[in-house]
Amino acid sequence: RPLLATFFKSIDDFVCTFLDPPLRPSIDPKHVLSGNFAPVDELPPTACDVVEGSLPPCLHGGAYIRNGPNPHFVPRGPHHLFDGDGMLHVITFTSPDGPIFCSRYIKTYKYTVEQKTGHPIFPSVFSSFNRLAASISRGLIIFARVLTRQFDPVANGFGLANINVALIGGRLFALGESDLPYAMKVTPGGDVITLGRHDFFSDKPFLNMNMTAHPKMDPQTGEAFSFRYHVIPPLLTIFKIDANGKKQPDVPIFSMKSTSLSHDFALTRNYVIIPDMQIVMDFTEVVKGRSPARVDLDKVPRVGVIPRYAEDESELVWIEARGLNVVHCTNAWEEDDGETVVMVVSNPSSIEQALEGLDLACPKMEKIIINVKDKTLHRHLLSDEVLDMGIINPTYSGRKCRYAYAGIVAQPMMLVGVVKIDLSVEDSASGGIVASRLYGPGCSGSEPFFVPREPENPSAEEDDGYLVAYIHDENNQESMFLVMDAKSPTLETVAAVKLPGRVPTGFHGLFIKESDLNKL
């Protein structure tokens, strides 16, 4: 076995050195992992200092957790931003001595196998298949490694769990859509432990073994809804996880005609809304020396609306929506006694660039109004600014909200500020933006998250709370945890915590309040 592993590695090195180059920027590790995208080492729980303002009481006893890609090994060949191993960056407010910060890898099957081999061996649909000779060679290496049991993706998965974190059924999960989620635990001392891959106590084998990284939780019922895509029929499957964290029967969607790499979806009181986008998975591209993940410009995007408790797809309504490729669903709700569904989404202006970089795709925030009965759809641009990573006050999930908050996207792939959008304002000169803040020259941040000031007060105003995010300053190489006043027209700083380690640019996160953290 060691001789075989060495042999495979030598072939892999040859492919990386002689067959892969030249690499396009989106898979060139020298480009992808530059600046604040460079990986960091794990950091055990370490005390932090509040260097500005004071932390609001609603944070006390809780924790903010953000996920993101952080390659465990320096890539020897092509590497896409989505390929990095998942790492959680956690700041807890449970100690009387002040905040505690910690960064830990999610110990996925991929991570543990490659930790033993000492180098990466798992393939990536985004970067492994690059040019014909390299694609064929790498495909043979992958087949040989599986055949010789270097790794077993069928039994154990091959996901990175590097996109999101979610509370489902009272448990904390790290998620990536190529695999099942991994259950995680935050210890009283602020450390992060991987408990293992989780199938939600399914009575039957969890066919296809993956789910979206953006499950939708209903704060009223405690239920979670999710979906998964696959390359064999059914190409799309919807399912529910009950309030106790147990998976319910699948609802296969056979009317999905191609494998859409739908990243997100929406949930309302009565409906699940699924985008069918132009980013698809097509493994015939591999024999052409190209990535199976591609943009199909001939495909007409659609939006599917199905009752959330449907047992089959007989009541599913598909509506064509040219030019609408939903990347993230910020919120959705119903109007007109359920005849109208309203969605707030981010949509790339240049879908052909979506796999090359979020900044190049130029996403913008839109309000989508769907008449379910008439099967019609209308789009309203909320702002001309390039915006993504939209969030709301989470207590308004699935019901009408007035405000949304989103990151200002700039090159290269960074969020350089945040805006507050009044969704009730249309056709104004500002596009409904009622508050805005730039982080400053050389500074970039993560997706913001809204924390209500009085989480247990049902009569609190919707925007009465705080936006929290990690911010990194390239000028002094310092990272901060920033708390901003969501009511302020400038989203002014309420508190800032200097972090003991750098937080790389990443993806999604959440704040867990004290009562939920204590139950984990």
Keywords:
mainly beta; Methylamine Dehydrogenase, Chain H; 5-stranded antiparallel β-sheet; 7 helices; 11% helix
Q: Biggest β-sheet: count, sense, barrel?
A: 6 strands, antiparallel
The 3D shape can be described as globular
- Strand content is 35-45%
| Low-pLDDT residue intervals, each spanning 5 or more residues | none
Could you name the CATH class? Mainly Beta
Pfam family, one: RPE65
Organism: Erythranthe guttata (Yellow monkey flower)
Binding site for Fe cation: 214, 263, 328, 508
Cofactor: Fe(2+)
Please give a quick description of this structure.
By secondary structure, this protein is mainly beta. Helices cover 11% and strands 36% of the residues.
Task: Outline the secondary-structure elements.
Blueprint: H1 2-19, H2 29-32, E1 43-47, E2 49-53, E3 63-69, E4 86-92, E5 100-105, H3 109-117, H4 132-147, H5 153-156, E6 164-168, E7 171-175, E8 182-186, E9 192-197, E10 216-217, E11 224-229, E12 236-241, E13 251-253, E14 266-267, E15 271-276, E16 279-281, E17 293-295, E18 302-307, E19 317-320, E20 328-335, E21 340-348, H6 358-361, E22 363-371, E23 376-381, E24 387-391, E25 403-410, E26 414-422, E27 433-438, E28 443-445, E29 449-452, E30 465-473, E31 478-485, E32 493-498, E33 509-512, H7 514-517
Antiparallel strand pairs: 1-5, 2-32, 3-4, 3-33, 4-5, 6-7, 7-8, 8-9, 10-11, 11-12, 12-13, 14-15, 15-18, 16-17, 18-19, 20-21, 21-22, 22-23, 24-25, 25-26, 26-27, 28-30, 29-30, 30-31, 31-32
Helix pairs in contact: 1-4
